[in-house]
């Protein structure tokens, strides 16, 4: 088990021994007494852009159906049932974010560090929420709206608005919020409401952003000029700026360099963040990876405890050079990439639960094709999509059907049981 997860589990154990406060609110009867023991073990998807379904682990109410019971099949998140134009959802460590096009952001689940963004935390006697609550802006307490994307990490949250500005809230012990706290100091504190990520201590907002990604305790932003900026925890180089190993935290966004041989201008088209590693796809179809690499999640053929990269390295898919329309996804310690031209889904990294989907439990240090599983359907109208969670993965085919594989101990695959799957299987009813 790699060090980040080991340390996180140790922190959970300490929290269980020293429980924090509890209480009740009008939207939930739950109390939050400690960090939950599961991480990213639930799933959520919009169906037909109007209705949100979720399933899997639910001890903190993260599937949003008003209960704390796990579900191995998709259940309706009622608050979104009658909304229209729903187009964004993200799962974090025991919490979930979702929004309708340009409308307010909603959050539910674990809230000890303010990752729900409603101005309350478990530590101030407010429980988690098993139904969606409104994310608020710091200062005015107005709803966070006009959002085009959300991303959820390990106890923190991000949102991107239509003006290209990034907002953050939740835990900030490693600078993963990319800004000062309301106490104007750094440290192990929380921000209970959304505020803007800033470029430097002068508090100039990070602007011109087109995409965001949230990892375990680090974050990435892609700007409209094709550059990538990272911030947060960087002990294994997951931020990617090449800074010294003994200075792991970045409290503000820094520019990530992409240096190719022979020299060329690298313009990034897509980004993804895993637990402690990061991915990027450039406009020429090449994939770059950086950060922790114990299980080969960087895909460069290397692996081991002290094998990591503090700057992006270009990796080779079996068919070199995809297209800028390719898809990438990063899980806890595994990675996915989809080539829409050849209709091949690739996977690499940690595979003990079958999260690579290649029918085995063998770790892969370079990308391998998931044999026999294609995403294009002749009569389909939707674009294909892929996602990677903690130790499980999802893909949507062009006909709208959802498929999953990997760890399934609490029903996070949505197939009606708790049996791990080593190859893709269809989500129940989807």
UniProtKB/TrEMBL annotation:
<keyword id="KW-0677">Repeat</keyword>
<dbReference type="Pfam" id="PF25390">
    <property type="entry name" value="WD40_RLD"/>
</dbReference>
<dbReference type="InterPro" id="IPR009091">
    <property type="entry name" value="RCC1/BLIP-II"/>
</dbReference>
<feature type="domain" description="RCC1-like">
    <location>
        <begin position="145"/>
        <end position="428"/>
    </location>
</feature>
<dbReference type="Pfam" id="PF00415">
    <property type="entry name" value="RCC1"/>
</dbReference>
<protein>
    <recommendedName>
        <fullName>RCC1-like domain-containing protein</fullName>
    </recommendedName>
</protein>
<dbReference type="InterPro" id="IPR058923">
    <property type="entry name" value="RCC1-like_dom"/>
</dbReference>
<dbReference type="InterPro" id="IPR051210">
    <property type="entry name" value="Ub_ligase/GEF_domain"/>
</dbReference>
<keyword id="KW-0732">Signal</keyword>
<feature type="signal peptide">
    <location>
        <begin position="1"/>
        <end position="25"/>
    </location>
</feature>
<dbReference type="InterPro" id="IPR000408">
    <property type="entry name" value="Reg_chr_condens"/>
</dbReference>
